[in-house]
Design a protein that fits this description.
heterodimer; A: alpha/beta; seven-stranded mixed beta sheet; three-stranded antiparallel beta sheet; 13 helices; 46% helix; 12% strand; B: mainly alpha
């Protein structure tokens, strides 16, 4: 009877205990996974063990799905295994120490334990596979989103014609170095990528926007080539590069100052002009002060020129960043330095400044008293050779001059307009061209320009500013011609 | 300033995986019940 009872008990235990072990094992497998994922993802202390990239990378946290997610997945897998193993070993030990001696329970529990372990492995395995699939899908989604954002950013910049030019070393900058607003760390490539989609987290913990739409242009930025500051909010507007070229003392700087006033006039109404960098603001203030005091402007320094960078916002149409390059005539005379004049290769419009007094045919026609009065204001170098040299430099730097424009500003008109050589000459482009060709004997120069450039326009310019706010109409004309050809939508011409 | 930039994505993954596991469990139970019912 005892044997029969034992067999019945065994059958009963087997019928109940084995399915129960399978269910318990399955549940234990899932629970092991949940405990492990909780420990790995939620329960761990803040950022402990997380690595910021160093060395050649960016001073920022990588996106979670671009690195840390792998480490966390490994932690979940090993945690699940450890939890399951601990449970199985614990149960096994209990069975061995407590029940195995009692027949027939021990006989049933060993196979139950094995079945439970198999079930636990199966469910934990399914959960882990699901985990890897979900993390992998999120990883792929993030990469896709990063690619889409980069593409959108590039397309938007292309459509808006946005470029970035360093005002100091004149390189075209594809990716400026952005400074973290909190700690000043240098982020050399802020575009959406492995460090952030819309924003990235700097090593200091500050959130830094990666897109123009979110204000990345408001960060301070440096040129990656020379390390000098770029214009404020670089990369937010299309640029206009406008070089002023001419021999020493031709009147380039004075004309540029008058042109700035003319730009303000022409953008009048709701439009405005503002310096795009503290450096430009202080240099302009200095020059305006000197001009206001009636002092003669210093000759342009002969080192590589730093651009005067200004934001010009017309009443209609988008804002533009205008870089004015006032380059010393002495530099242009030195072909060995031409390679440094990279801005010449970035411009589509050029202002050639020509002092009529520097042309011998003009000078010899003056009376002795006029020559005596004007001798200190005369540019010593005739323009022909320099213009040929500069045109070669422009072409050598990659500009297709057959697609570029040249404005020829015959300067110092306020000083010479009443003199004999200019008697009866109208200020229209054709008349100025004829006068240069016929009267001054600059036919070769004019023909060369006509041949090399797509469009050439001739102006008499008087770089005079009336009451500090109204440029001479001749400069307004020149400015209007330049700006409209650079795509500015100008409402009016401003006060005469 | 962010103290733990990975907090949010980790919680997201955790919540997502809870849902996924729950869905798998429900599907498994439903499959067993259907099988028992024939």
């Amino acid at each position: 009877l005892g044997v029969i009872a034992s067999v019945l008990l065994l059958i009963f235990l087997a019928a109940i205990a084995l399915p129960l072990a399978i269910v318990a094992g399955a549940v234990a497998g899932v629970l092991s996974y949940l405990v492990a994922i909780h420990e790995a993802l939620v329960g761990r202390p803040a950022a402990a063990g997380d690595r910021r990239s160093g060395g050649a990378g960016q001073p920022a946290y990588r996106l979670y799905f671009m690195g840390q997610a792998y480490a966390d997945t490994r932690a979940v897998i090993s945690g699940t295994y450890t939890r399951s193993a601990e449970l199985g070993i614990g149960l096994g030990n209990q069975v061995r120490s407590g029940y195995s001696v009692v027949m027939p329970i021990g006989v049933v529990f060993y196979p139950a334990l094995v079945l439970g372990a198999v079930a636990a492995s199966a469910t934990a395995g399914v959960a882990l596979v699901a985990h890897v699939v979900v993390v992998g899908a999120l990883h792929a989604t993030v990469w896709g989103a990063v690619g889409a954002l980069r593409l959108a950013d590039t397309v938007m910049r292309q459509l808006r014609g946005i470029t970035i030019t360093c005002p100091t070393c004149h390189h075209r900058v594809p990716n400026p170095v952005h400074l973290c607003p909190a700690c000043g760390a240098h982020h050399t490539d802020l575009r959406p990528g492995r460090y952030g989609m819309l924003r990235r987290v700097c090593a200091c913990g500050a959130r830094v926007p990666t897109l123009l739409l979110l204000g990345s242009d408001r960060l301070r930025s440096l040129c990656p080539y020379c390390g000098r500051p770029l214009a404020d909010r670089s990369g937010s507007s299309a640029e206009v590069v406008l070089p002023f070229l001419g021999p020493p003392m031709a009147g380039k700087t004075t004309l540029m100052m008058a042109l700035l006033v003319a730009v303000e006039q022409l953008t009048g109404g709701r439009g405005r002009v503002e310096p795009a960098s503290a450096d430009t603001a202080s240099r302009l203030d200095e020059m305006r002060r000197a001009a206001g005091l009636g002092l003669r402007l210093e000759p342009t320094r002969t080192e590589l020129p730093t651009a005067y960078s200004l934001y010009a916002t017309p009443s209609r149409g988008p804002r533009r960043l205008v870089h004015l390059f006032d380059i010393a005539g002495e530099r242009l005379n030195r072909p060995d330095q031409a390679v440094e004049h990279r801005f010449l290769g970035l411009a589509r419009s050029f202002v050639f400044v020509l002092d009529p007094m520097s042309v011998e045919a003009f000078w010899t026609e003056l009376t002795d008293s006029d020559r005596e009065r004007l001798k200190d204001l005369r540019a010593p170098q005739p323009p022909q050779d320099l213009f040929a040299e500069v045109t070669q430099q422009i072409q050598a730097l990659g500009t297709d001059t057959s697609r570029a424009r040249a404005a020829v500003a015959v300067s110092k008109h306020d000083l010479v307009r009443d003199l004999r050589p200019l008697a009866g000459v109208q200020p229209e482009s054709g008349a100025v061209e004829d006068w240069l060709t016929g009267r001054l004997g600059l036919g070769n120069l004019v023909r060369t320009m006509r041949h090399e450039f797509r469009e050439v326009h001739f102006f008499f310019t008087a770089a005079v500013v009336y009451e500090g706010s109204a440029a001479d109409p001749s400069v307004v004309d020149l400015t209007h011609w330049l700006l409209t050809r650079e795509g500015f939508a100008l409402n009016g011409r401003g006060p005469p | 300033v962010t103290r733990d930039p990975y907090r949010a994505p980790r919680v997201l993954v955790f919540a997502l995986m809870l849902l996924v596991v729950l869905a798998i469990c429900l599907a498994a139970v439903a499959a067993v019940v259907m099988r028992i019912r024939g």
